[in-house]
Each structure stands twice: as C-alpha cells, then as structure tokens.
Amino acid sequence: MGMTPLPPAARRSxxxxxxxxxLPLALAVFAMPAAARGPAPVHVxxxxxxxxxxxxAAGAEILKAGGSAxxxxxAVMLALNVVEPQSSGIGGGGFLLRxxxxxxxxxxxxxxxxxxxxDGQWFLRDGRPIPWPEVVPGARSVGVPGAIALxxxxxxxxxxxxxxxxxxxxxxxxxxxxxxxxxxNTTLAxxxxxxxxxxxxxxxxxxxxxxPVAVGTxxxxxxxxxxxxxxxxxxxxxxxxxxxxxxxxxxxxxxxSGGAPMTLADVAGYKAVVREPLCGMYRQWRICGMGPxxxxxxxxxxxxxxxxxxxLTALGPQSPVAWHLIAESMRLAYADRERYLGxxxxxxxxxxxxxxxxxxxxxxxxxxxxxTLALVSAGTPPGAQRLARADGPAQEExxxxxxxxxxxxGSAVSYTNTIESAFGSGLMVNGYFLxxxxxxxxxxxxxxGKPAANAVAGGKRPRSSMxxxxxxxxxxxxxxxxxxxxGTTIPAQVAKAIIGVLDWNLPAQQAIALPVLYAPxxxxxxxxxxxxxxxxxxxxxxxxxxxxxxxASFKANAVEVVNGKLVGAADPRxxxxxxxx
Length: 581
Hints:
single chain, alpha+beta, 7-stranded antiparallel β-sheet, 22 helices, globular
C-alpha cells in the first residue's frame, strides 16, 4: 500500500514552527536519561522485566532454577504484591499472554468478576450515578479477585517447577522485609489524604503520627507471608475456600464505608478463562493481544493498522506530523473502544470487525496528515450491534503493573496485573489489598435509552484497558513482548512503544522512554516537561485546538529479541528493571 505524503500546504504552514522546534527537540532526545539510552543486559538463558528490581530478581531466580517463562511471571506477580502493594497483587486480577517458540499464543483471563447481587443499579443513588471518588474506597467497588485462579490455570498448563516453589521469593520478602522505596512512600502519602485505608492497612503502612513508613524502612508483612505460605501448600483452594474466602466476603459485606453483598459462593465460583488471542498483521509483524473483556488488543491494533499507510519511518520520532497522525488514529480507535468493548460473555463484541483490515483501512482514510478531524465518532465494524457508548469513568489510576518473562526454551509471557486504583479499595484481607475494579464498569446502565456494553451485571467482568502484547516476525520468532500500566493510557503507551521499535528502529528501552501522547477524544494530552510539550504549537497548527500537558504517570516494561539475544527494557519513569538468571 502506498505511503501518504504531507501535502505542500501543510508543509508550508508548519515550516516556521518546525524550525523553532528543531533544536529543543533534538536536545530533548539526546538528553534522555541514561536508563533510556543504554540497553539492558542480554542473556540467552532468559530474562525478566518488571516494575521493581526485587520482583524482577524473583523471576530471574525461578528461571535459574529451571522454571518456565510462566513460572517466572507468576513469581514476579507474587513478589510485586509484597514490594509494590499499591499496584498489584492477589487481591486483584489480570491478563496473561503466553507464546511458545513457534509463535503460538494463548491467553488467560483472570479479570475480576462482579458479585451475583450486582445489577444496573449498583452505582446509582436516587437514579443518578454516584460520584467516582465516593465509590473507590470501600466495598461496592470490589470484584471477586482472579489472580490466584489465573496463576493456577497457567501453571497447570505451562509450569515446569512445583507450584509451591513459585511462592518462595515473595514469602521471603514478606517475612524478612523489604526496603520502602520513594515511589511507595509517595503513593502512601497521597493515599493518606483520601482516608481510604482500613485499620489493618493503616497499622501496616503508617505510624502512630499518621505519616507513611519512611523511605528506607524495612517493612515486614507477616500476614501476607502466612497467606502466601497457605496458598503455596494447599493450592488455590486456600484462597477461594475456607477462612480466606470467608474473610473476603465478610470484609466486603461489612465494610464501615458501606458494605456490599458478596457471598462465599461468589468467591468460590470464580474461574479463570483460557481464551483465544486476537492477532493481526501490522506491516510484516504479527501483533497478538488480549481480547474482551480487555480492550487492549482491538485498540492497540486499530491504532497501528490505521497508521500502516503512512511512512512513519521517514517522519521519525521528532516529527510533529508523526505524532499528529498517531493522535488522530488514537481518537478513532478510542471511539470504537468506548462504543463496543465489554465482557464478551455478556454482550456481543464485534472483535473480528474491529480488527478487520478493510474496516480499519476505511477508518484510516479519515486521517489527513495536514489537518485534524473536527469530529470523531465510532464506526460501524462488521458484526456491530447498536449499543450505547461503553465508557466508564476515565480516571487516572496507579494500581496496575506489567511484567515480561522469556525462558531458555523461547517461550514468552506478557502479563498485566492490577488492583485498579492505588491500593485498590483500601480494604485489606490477610495482608493484601482488595481491588476496586468494579469502577471500570459504566456507572449508568444505559445512555439515551440504549444498553451499555460495559454495564454492571452479576458475574460480569468489567472492561479493561490492559494491553499485554506479543509480537512475532513472519517466521514466528519473537520480536517483542511489551505492556504497560496507567489506566486508559495503556493502549496509547503500548502502541507508542511498538511504533518506536518497529517503525523508528529504536531499542525497546528508548521506545518506552519516548514521551507519551494520549488522545482519547477531542483533547490531546502530552507528557509534561517532555519534547511533546514543545510540540504543542505545531500540533495546534495542524488543527488540534485543545492540547494539554499532563504529569507523567506511565510505567511500561518489555523484552525484545535483537540478533538472537534478549534485551530487557523498563520505563525510566518507574523503578523498573530487567534481570537475568
């Protein structure tokens, strides 16, 4: 397919702005932090990349012991529960993609489920949606956790080491303690102002004076160590039955902030689901992601595929035109996401239509490199039904993490785990936080009289932005495993990183470090203090009337294959790291 050049008129209108921007943009690129410029270590025996070096080390330990990528990823998830409690853990859920050395991919859905009592009135008061900040702390936001069920399902299929072995690094960290980092301390200080924590959480993470544990403090979580030891010894039944299940149901049903009905049957009935991946070709690469209830695969793929006819390589990462094109493609992709995505077990999601090359070519034809679309609305992909907008509250969240593991046999895992907001609901059971994932549902069940694809229902899984991704070449060889954290910005982060690697030929580390542009609608958000902020005049010249800088709240991790070697990448905005056995 031919490339669409920038029209002469647009080139002339931008020339002055581009000349003014050239020097600061170039300096910004070369002024990237050392972590962004230099590659991480390479190792043929496997690699792990995670948002905390201690969790990455846990995964590397498992790889060294002969574990698979699946084993390592599960050990990372458990360790992150200890050292990054604000972002992840067994009180939440997630999505895991696993690909083998031939490029055959399977996905595991461990997304939380609403209790059976949940219905369209769940987030309504006097017929009107309850304000989002009132719902997050407390019980009404909690879904039945899926992380342990996902772990058991994935381990049964692709584990090599005994189940109990995967828990040992996390148990040590919880029992012996870990040093509190600046990121955890800052997040605790922010959460203190919200008053969302229950007494057990306050006692663990705050002093008598109300201040969070200081940076450098050795923090122990004996309750979590004991919980993990029980699950290690007895399997998932130690989580979904008995005392732990009763504690979850009791905590949710009797929370002082306002209990919500969750029963032992709700907890015991949770099942992780093995689903087919959603894969499609972008240029010569096969992109595989997670289908509904995740919006990740369809949104990331649409962003990429709608850009395929443009020569992004020639434009390069310093070009405002390139970022304008990316913004326009995001606007179109997010419009479809908001209209159609929900739990495919409850509503018909036109996944084939949303990834159909002909449909996406038609959407791409709406993109003009010289000007901005005045209005963006959802398209009509093949198989679509007339549904209301599926969007829920688009709140910034800090309760998600992503990690990647690749083993010596060539299998790769890309896994995103979450408890939604920072520290989830603030409710703690046996040393871990319960999620607030149900706030990802639409608060109103209908819009303009039409049912919402993402409406609340008993047993339903809320729509997610998590976008774990695996990328293969034409021969089925792994090129990149990538994912991110950051709420609805996740598809934007992942698409940007993929463009950086595949179109701009950047190392994954530099691609992740590139500034994030996020355009879910009429407003274009650019990363504050980055080269993108200097691009605002050029983006405005292209017709983007509302371009706003926003604070960076991004966190991506990846492993790529370069000349047959593994190279890890971790977001320099985070405390992430890559580790080898």
